[in-house]
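Researcher: Let's do a round of design. I'm pasting the structure tokens now; please hold your answer until I've finished.
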């Protein structure tokens, strides 16, 4: 079956569309990536989305217009990726604007903006959406949702592997080996903390909106990391807590950036961005150091995806700090770093049709596995 996967992450920079074919057994599908297209959001739409994630107050009409604009951009990306209309099914995550972790007392809360019936009508195809809700209803975090898809798409190796996504937020999947005493270990995953969210906001702040991200890490390369501050930040409660855990821009957004910049007012803009860049990598390294506390071992290989995979300084910092782990990009596994999440949501949509569970309770904390998503059809 040909499926279109659509994804826009917490960086809110645009929509990735992937056309892929899936067949065979759900847990070990034969798959092929047919096409991948990226459509950036207009600057004003990106700004509205980021403000929504920072708690801006919109009236009902403004929320509706924002979700409609996002839906139309998803439709444009889908049509550009699949001009011949090969896809029978669309898997669309929508645009996350709020995500709150589950606690012992309360269920989690997560809001993705999308008008699925409109998308189905625009594309004249079935749409599966709202992938987090079933996991959250079962007491899970609703994130990360790509742990099981990582295993299905990449497969198990001879040793423990990690798949790290560096979007606005960093999330990781830990995959056990296919043989040996650990082969029956659970697949784990969690949100690590900020990846590009703080870096992007700092770049925009220091360039007065002229730049929205640090291309290839060139700004950070000119600065000097203040290691004492990185160590201080790593001691914050979120980074010391064990999985399952999830987070978003509402926690690591502009307010958080301004708080951190008050810790380093004496640094040049380049050194502030270098310190934030090193912080992103140091979070991952600290998580690796603490894997024994959840009965796991350090991955021998780490495959990096997302926009951060293109940031040379982040990659250099990861290689420097994640000792004992070979750090490379997901491209080595035949998956574009930019296409990974859209491909994953295409697979989740196919799993929905096949009635195959999509979440990992070990990663999200849900009471059990569940079939993810809700399906709508065009009229």
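Researcher: That's everything. Go ahead.
Model: Designed sequence:
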């Amino acid at each position: 079956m040909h499926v279109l996967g659509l994804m826009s992450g917490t960086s809110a920079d645009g929509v990735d569309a992937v056309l892929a074919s899936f067949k065979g057994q759900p847990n070990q599908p034969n798959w092929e990536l047919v096409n991948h297209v990226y459509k950036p959001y207009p600057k004003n739409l990106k700004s509205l989305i980021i403000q929504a994630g920072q708690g801006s107050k919109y009236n009902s009409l403004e929320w509706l217009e924002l979700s409609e604009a996002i839906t139309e951009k998803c439709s444009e990306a889908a049509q550009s990726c699949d001009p011949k209309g090969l896809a029978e099914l669309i898997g669309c995550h929508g645009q996350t604007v709020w995500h709150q972790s589950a606690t012992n007392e309360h269920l989690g809360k997560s809001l993705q903006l999308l008008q699925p019936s409109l998308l189905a009508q625009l594309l004249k195809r079935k749409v599966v959406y709202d992938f987090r809700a079933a996991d959250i209803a079962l007491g899970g975090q609703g994130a990360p949702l790509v742990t099981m898809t990582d295993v299905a798409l990449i497969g198990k190796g001879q040793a423990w592997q990690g798949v790290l996504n560096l979007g606005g937020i960093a999330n990781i999947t830990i995959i056990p080996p296919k043989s040996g005493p650990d082969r029956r270990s659970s697949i784990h995953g969690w949100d690590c903390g900020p990846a590009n969210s703080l870096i992007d906001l700092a770049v925009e702040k220091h360039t007065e909106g002229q730049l929205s991200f640090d291309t290839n890490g060139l700004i950070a390369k000119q600065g000097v990391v203040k290691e004492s501050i990185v160590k201080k930040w790593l001691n914050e409660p979120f980074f010391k807590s064990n999985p399952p855990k999830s987070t978003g821009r509402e926690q690591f957004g502009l307010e958080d950036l301004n708080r951190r910049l008050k810790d380093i007012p004496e640094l040049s803009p380049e050194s502030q961005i270098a310190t934030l860049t090193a912080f992103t990598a140091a979070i991952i390294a600290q998580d690796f150091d603490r894997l024994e506390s959840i009965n796991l071992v350090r991955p021998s290989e780490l495959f990096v995806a997302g926009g951060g995979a293109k940031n040379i300084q982040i990659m250099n910092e990861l290689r420097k700090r994640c000792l004992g782990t070979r750090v490379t990009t997901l491209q080595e596994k035949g998956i574009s770093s930019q296409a990974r999440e859209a491909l994953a949501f295409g697979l989740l949509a196919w799993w929905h049709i096949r009635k195959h569970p999509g979440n990992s309770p070990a990663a999200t904390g849900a009471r059990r596995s569940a079939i993810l998503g809700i399906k709508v059809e065009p009229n």
